[in-house]
Amino acid sequence: MNKFSKNLEINRQSWEDRTAVHLKSKFYDLESFKKNTMSLKPFELEGLGEVKEKSLLHLQCHFGQDSLSWARKGAKVTAVDFSPSAIKAAKALSEELGIKAEFIESNVLTLDLKQEFDVVFMSYGTLGWLPDLKKWGAVVAKHLKQGGTFFISEFHPVLNILDEKTQFGYFFDENTPTIKEIGSYTDGGEDMTTEYCWWNHSLSEIFVALESNGLKLQSFAEFDYSPYKIKGTVERRKGQYVLENRTKQSLPYVFTLKATKK
Ligand SMILES: C[S@@+](CC[C@H](N)C(=O)[O-])C[C@H]1O[C@@H](n2cnc3c(N)ncnc32)[C@H](O)[C@@H]1O
Description:
Shape: globular
Bound molecules: S-adenosylmethionine
Distance between the termini: 33 Å
Radius of gyration: 17 Å
Number of domains: 1
Structural class: alpha/beta
């Protein structure tokens, strides 16, 4: 049995709980999404660029909003998540909107689709759920064509250590505690308590995981706001959210990273 299989099972259950809440949340605003089918933010739209006719693998796709947004922009999308309810909801959404994408239920760390893609994509709230970034880097590399592009827009590991309640350290801690949370990061779910395990990963750990698996860094950027209204933030300009108790301090909220398979 893998050292982290118990933690991953706790997390899978947590995502089963969360998905039910998220589908009804204002945060994900499913009804508006159904009307305009675009959930992607400028960071990834501009950072990744043209995807028309490209094969795109989306890791940790949740219930498919970003996957279907890329498909609407012309990508041939395959999307993966380990939560059965998220995959079920994603398939239903794809069917309802008439936008084609393949949704697969799998743990990212054991994924082996025996297929190489032009693009591997992931975004916002993904790496912290993975206890082994070396394995993750290998999965990304295995699913990319030579010369293919990996792109991630993700919450910055510094942002994650500012949470007073969880008190995560900056560097990876294999003995991370199991945390109890009422509700989720979205609105709703006040009557739900969920347990989860989460691992912070330093920037150097992320770079090494990719480089040691044959990916070459193309671009890297850090941003001083979140494009999502995460808890504890206020809107300082349209679509730019910063922590309410840190409005005068410039902090890294998000990073984007683009790499190529050598
Ligand atoms: C914050 S969400 C995805 C982010 C996406 N930007 C969104 O907001 O829809 C994180 C997703 O990672 C998935 N996940 C967590 N650990 C995973 C794992 N080991 N393998 C596959 N999916 C995983 C969860 O089920 C969840 O759907």
